[in-house]
Amino acid sequence: MSKSDRGMTRRDFIRLAAYAAMGTAVGAEALAGEGPALRKRSRVVLVRDENAVTAGGEINADVIRQMMDRGVSELVGAHDPVDCWRQLVGTPKLVGIKTNAWGNLPTPAAVEQVIEQRLRDAGIAKGRIPKTDREARRKLADCDALINARPLRSHHWAGIGGCIKNYIMFAPRPGVYHPDACADLASVWSLPEAKGKTRLNILVALTPLFYGRGPHHWDPRYVWPYKGIFFSRDPVAVDALGAYLLAAKRRLELGEDKPLTPAPHIRMAEVRHHLGVADLKRIDLVKVGWEKDALI
Amino acid sequence: MSGCKQQPMELHQLLPREFSGWEAAGEGVVYDRDTLFDYIDGGAELYLAYDFRRMLACRFERDGHPAIVADVFDMGSSEEAFGVFSTERQDPEAGIGQGSEYAVGLLRFWRGRFFVSVWAEEETAATADAVRELAARIAKAIEPPGPPPQLLHLLPSEGLADTRVRYFHDHLSLNLYYFLADENILGLSERTEAVLAPYETAKGTMHLLLVRYPTAEEAGRGLEGFLAAYLPEADESGAARVESGSWVAAQGLGDVVMVAFDAPSRGQAHELLSAVREKLKEQTP
Fold this sequence. Notes:
Chain A is α/β, with parallel strands linked by helices. Chain A has helices at 3-6, 10-21, 26-32, 61-76, 81-89, 109-121, 136-139, 179-182, 235-254, 264-271, and strands at 42-48, 95-98, 131-132, 145-155, 159-161, 198-209, 228-232, 283-289. Chain B is α+β, with helices and mostly antiparallel strands. Chain B contains 8 helices and 14 strands.
């Protein structure tokens, strides 16, 4: 059994951090385990724009549109964003948008609007683009392609709320996935309603929440205007980077006293469920735009 | 709110129907261990890791103001109520109940067997006052008060950062506060009590972990498991220097296992554990 299957200790993480500081690849390999399936790489695009969010916290829809087009173009490798969307989704009958309706930090309307617009530009009829969060099982089950878009935030039990977790609403009983800090959350992606359908994951980091408190896990002191959006075909890779970003922000703002809640479901998504790449060493991150305080 | 059940009178009686212009929007909703996920999906595990019995959620509204939400958790005992309160404690004492804190519209407190959260959907001058008033009314209605966990009395006071003491039961909870290992190497469970306490030193923060097991035999197995998985090179005193350059020391006494993490020296680790042993001996009849 590999180390990643039997688990890690605090001392293992310290050792790996030391290896990483020395510039060796030993740490990353040990974290990810071994095996040919784990050696693949994933591409993630991070687009940031200083003007994406105003000083008052309002989202600038025009800037978001530009960021979305840039992100998709960089990911697909073509200039025309409409062509990129066509390449991403193909010619499906029904393209669902899995959004997130969490009251304190929902998927921004500006992001949803760009997705819908670009899908229509790519030839999908308006009535063939259902969008929902809580009713995913009912409204998105018949889709043959999905776009997964949600904000990045800390999550008390799972560590982070990211693209992997966003599919929990495809589960008939979401609570079933909570044991062991949601370690097997990625298995939701194997449900027939979702399996193999996702064409694009958009992890919105415009105003991420890096620490939450209280039963509703919300504290506006810990929201910051990062002004970024991650794009990838791989939900595990965007979440791995999202977790890294939240951890970096916590270290910066809160020190060692409040380390990021472990998010075993991201590592298990690769090691056990083979959903994507969790190992940061095998994620090709393309950064575009505003560079200040990127932390990543 | 959905999933309404008949409300146990003791929860319902803790909330006013109105106060200072704010009115309860409906009767509130009661959730139990099976339905708590319906209310706080993802956050419910925190409460289920303790002896959570049921909770009442009620929304208060006033024209022209953001809403206020009161969540009253019956944790079964004052020790468990303290435990939930301790999990996120970080802000200054707010003077309500047996322990409280307030920041940015959120007031958390514990009293007796109840943990209570009163939260304004947006903090304004009016909601800040209303949150405090509502919390104070709820606290006044809770009788009787109750003791915090006995295990806290084993903590040496010198250097203790007491507002950051966490009380819990299982290893997943431990990992939320201080990641130790993916596997449950100490054998923690709902039957164990644990305290994690930070101590400030001139060279940084040490952490003391105390675990009380149901029996001395189980404590022995817990210590053995920890040493084998985490500190196999420990010397006869249970101490070893680890990769960070700091020292870790683990010892057992009766049904208690004590571990000092992040100690600047072997001596400081042993000094902290010795202080716990002294307190433990004082408490043992």
